[in-house]
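User: Please fill in residues for this 432-position structure.
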């Protein structure tokens, strides 16, 4: 009889303290993540449709690039006048996660949408993930006050917004969910938000692709050689190059940002001067290859030999654009940098060109964002599982050799990349 009573108590304890709370957590967050995913996915759909329109218009009317300095002045003035509370962008989401202060203003979403579209329309070199993440994070965080959520629930909510924005803008729900769990603390993955992050990412991707009928770009790796010891060893120098390129991208962007802040005290003038420099460079080079997203060049990197310096030119144009204060993201320029670097490495590394381009595509991204798991999953989602070991090892090596640097200055180092760097634990990348 005593044993039966103990067994009943254990069963009752399980249902009371584990099963029922988990059931409540699941239904609660499936509902919230579903709504956030739908909103963030729709925002990304509107953004991508608009971005495609402004890109086509710019390429058909190249004279508009001459107006980039004036566009920069307008973007700078709008943020100076109305957006000082959201000017930090992605870093603000990180800071609110670490040290919650107040709900992220909803104005972040329309302001970054306007700033990014203007940047691309007039010829800046920028990406799109920052816009989607900021829109997703800002939209998600509004539920904090509407639902009166506690501090820990708010952290989950911000994670869902980031996952939804990232997944929908690239069409990679697995990578989007893991990116949101991984980017918050370097070397740590936060599992308390794993269910809502995955669900929100899938709903957002569905909303963007199926409801708004947005088609994402596809890349193909036609030949993946057997992974013998020789090929395995060739991944090492490739991964090191990708990591160093990611570090260079991050350092260059921070350099220009610091320089503009030091030399130009009135914020709206920074993108004006930066826009003037970018416009002059475009007309001097006689090509628009290194502005905008650069999708055509990324696609070409998988199929034809490109100039070896393409990756350096893109780093220079994007770091100048973003460092000056234009809006957008860094990830698609990182894809450009990695794919063209992989293309160049095919001259000296005996692996297929398309495979090296794919490895660089996600490897440089991994090194610059410190998210090797998300980047590995992105490679598998975009290129197929056959290349999984190659892209996975490239991402891990790039992550290690990029050092404690990254495009997100507010990222906190939760676990150092090697035992010699233990003293860096707990610092953010802006201090590295």
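Assistant: Residues filled in for all 432 positions:
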């Amino acid at each position: 009889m005593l044993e039966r009573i103990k067994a009943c108590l254990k069963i009752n304890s399980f249902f009371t303290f584990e099963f029922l709370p988990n059931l409540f957590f699941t239904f609660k967050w499936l509902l919230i993540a579903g709504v956030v995913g739908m909103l963030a996915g729709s925002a990304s759909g509107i953004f991508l449709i608009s971005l495609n329109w402004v890109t086509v218009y710019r390429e058909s009317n190249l004279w508009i690039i001459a107006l980039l300095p004036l566009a920069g002045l307008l973007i700078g003035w709008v943020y100076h006048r109305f957006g000082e509370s959201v000017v930090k962008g992605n870093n603000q989401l990180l800071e609110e996660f670490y040290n919650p202060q107040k709900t992220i203003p909803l104005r972040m979403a329309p302001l970054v949408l306007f700033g990014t579209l203007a940047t691309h329309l007039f010829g800046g070199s920028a990406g799109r993930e920052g816009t989607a993440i900021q829109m997703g994070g800002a939209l998600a965080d509004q539920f904090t006050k509407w639902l009166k959520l506690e501090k820990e629930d708010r952290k989950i909510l911000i994670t869902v917004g980031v996952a939804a924005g990232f997944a929908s803008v690239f069409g990679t729900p697995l990578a989007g969910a893991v990116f949101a769990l991984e980017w918050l603390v370097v070397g740590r993955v936060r599992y308390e938000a794993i269910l809502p992050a995955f669900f929100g990412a899938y709903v957002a991707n569905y909303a963007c692709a199926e409801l708004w009928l947005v088609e994402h770009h596809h890349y193909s790796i036609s030949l993946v050689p057997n992974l013998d010891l020789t090929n395995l060893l060739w991944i090492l120098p490739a991964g090191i190059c990708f990591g160093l390129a990611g570090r260079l991208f991050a350092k260059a962007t921070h350099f220009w940002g610091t320089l503009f802040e030091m030399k130009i005290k009135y914020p709206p003038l920074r993108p004006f001067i930066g826009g003037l420099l970018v416009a002059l460079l475009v007309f001097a080079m006689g090509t628009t290859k290194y502005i905008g997203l650069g999708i055509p060049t990324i696609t070409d990197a998988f199929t034809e030999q490109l100039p070896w310096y393409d990756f350096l030119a893109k780093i220079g144009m994007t770091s100048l654009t973003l460092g000056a204060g234009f809006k957008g993201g860094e990830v698609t320029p990182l894809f450009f940098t990695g794919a063209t670097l992989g293309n160049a490495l095919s001259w000296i590394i005996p692996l297929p060109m398309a495979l090296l381009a794919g490895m660089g595509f996600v490897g440089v991204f991994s090194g610059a964002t410190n998210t090797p798991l998300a980047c590995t999953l992105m490679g598998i989602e975009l290129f197929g599982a056959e290349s999984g070991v190659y892209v996975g090892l490239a991402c891990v090596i790039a992550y290690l050799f990029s050092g404690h640097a990254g495009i997100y200055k507010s990222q906190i180092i939760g676990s150092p990349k090697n035992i010699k760097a233990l003293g860096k634990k707990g610092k953010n990348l802006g201090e590295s």
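For context: The mean pLDDT is 93.
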